[in-house]
């Protein structure tokens, strides 16, 4: 049944093929013979196709023009930038602070800050412990920071040393990142701490020279656009804003003298169980500050241990009643006015006197003294008797001319004006006490600056903490003879008969004045004292003025001559040696066999 | 007509050469820039290292450090007890 059916199908297919062959042969023959039979496609179809293609190309050209020709380049640019362009902050390095000889006192070095995106962090316990150890923070604290805060960004530690940051980076922890920053280093540590101040974590000045010279030291960070190739190398750049590097600051400080002053002060404050103290060393020729130091101090690299009390640059920011150190100015005013000569005699017995219901007194009765001896013995009664003959205005003029009552423009932050009331308000008792240093307050820097007038033959230059070639012009305050006369009195004050024999320096003639003043607390004088000494060395052709202040000595001694004068002696000896000042001929004999040679 | 054809061919060749040299120059510029960038980076690193060394030098030359080292060597600070001051004449006669 099946077989015949299959053969009949193939037969009919073959018959069909033959029929088609015959028909096509017949068609071509027909169309050639008869044009009416030829198939003609309508022309609009090909035109339509052509037009469609044309439209397609126009659309493409339009799109290309749209993207490339400036109508809308934003999209492609955005895409390109997202792939190859980076905008980077370029940090400006903060300037270096050096001393007058170019020794680095403060410098910024690269550091890293380690930060995290908590939600990205997937770290195992072991890795976390390693990280905590490297960052020097407890593992628990680290975990708390990474989990407790719902913030999307958290600093783990800032100002990390680059080597440590590199080791952390080598762990390749997800979610933990690091970025560049700077860290300020102070090689001299506590010795220059209050003078230099410190910077914050962003490397901006916060105190001291760092703050006062912020505009010079601090640069301005720049912004830079980079094009990177597929290898990640920068291939083109464009400065949006060029960085301005911080400029260096050269201070007038001499780091060796600073150290001498610091160590002498430190041991004196400890030995006298004092609350604190300061030392200022000024260069007589230029008025520049060679050393400025205070105790207690702090270690600028241990921020966590800083105490606000220790940050103060006491020599500049704290005022005290100067006591007897102000007497030479009162005597100089009287000498200038022609009221007295150095040899004029004053009767100071019985060692006390009453003025308008108040009694002023000396430590003991000195009897009849010359004006020179009044300074050497530091007689309050003698000074008061001389000062009461003066017009108040004259005394005020001298004290103002040497800088009391005005903040010194030394380029230091927090410089105080001190207190010097206008002369119209002075009662006679006040005129007398101001003449010997009560009822007026000064900073140690002001006091040191004022003594330049005696060291420099009667003129005064402004103090400065910057090292500059050209000294500022001097202003005459006293006649040279007056300054020389007072200088001789100040030399006598450090003689065996004076109040400050322990200020002497073997091999050099020095001059200076002690001060011992009770401290004012809540408007009343207390049993606490401020011991001070201001002097210069050598006495003639002085090179340095040195001022020492010891606050509240409590180890039994409190007189300036006992507490502050030995510090002066140590600092002067060291400073003159550092400045290579040759010992003087006159003092050589003294050094050979004089008891001063065996001072402790 | 032939002239125009020659000119067009020449211009086309010049255009091609110029385009190729532009690409080469751009490539070279990028290479050089990358080198410059690397050199500048090195310079910055050296500068930072120099600063760090200056700080180290400052630390090492600190008077306090020198004094401590001197004490270890058995030296002691100058004190008046052990200071002999010679007058200029005596100094001149000494060998």
Task: Describe this entry's structure for a reader.
The complex is a heterodimer of chains A (600) and B (95). Chain A has 600 residues and is α+β, with helices and mostly antiparallel strands. Chain A has 2 domains: 88-126 and 154-250, Penicillin-binding protein 2a (Domain 2) (Alpha-Beta Complex), CATH 3.90.1310; 255-598, DD-peptidase/beta-lactamase superfamily (Beta-lactamase), CATH 3.40.710.10. Chain A is built from 22 helices and 21 strands. In chain A, the strands form 7 sheets. In chain A, strands 2, 3, 4, 5 and 8 form a 5-stranded mixed sheet that branches. A 5-stranded antiparallel sheet of chain A has the order 10-9-21-20-19, with helices on both faces. A 3-stranded antiparallel sheet of chain A has the order 1-6-7. In chain A, helix 10 (255-271) runs antiparallel to helix 21 (565-578), helix 14 (371-377) packs across helix 19 and helix 15 packs across helix 17 (428-435). Chain A is elongated. Chain B is an all-alpha fold and 95 residues long. Chain B has one domain (2-75). Chain B has helices spanning 2-60, 63-72, 88-93. The chains are: A alpha+beta (600), B mainly alpha (95).
* End-to-end separation of chain B: 107 Å
Instruction: Count every beta strand of chain A, where a strand is a DSSP E run of 2 or more residues.
Output: 21
Oligomer description:
heterodimer
| CATH fold-level topology of the largest domain in chain A | Beta-lactamase
Query: Could you state the CATH homologous superfamily of the largest domain in chain A?
Result: DD-peptidase/beta-lactamase superfamily
In helices, the fraction of residues of chain A equals 25-40%
The CATH class of the largest domain in chain A turns out to be Alpha Beta
CATH architecture title of the largest domain in chain A = 3-Layer(aba) Sandwich
The helix count of chain A comes to 22
Could you give a short account of the major beta sheet of chain A? 5 strands, mixed
The total count of strands of chain B amounts to 0
Radius of gyration of chain B: 37 Å
Name the largest protein-protein interface in this structure: A-B, 37 and 26 residues
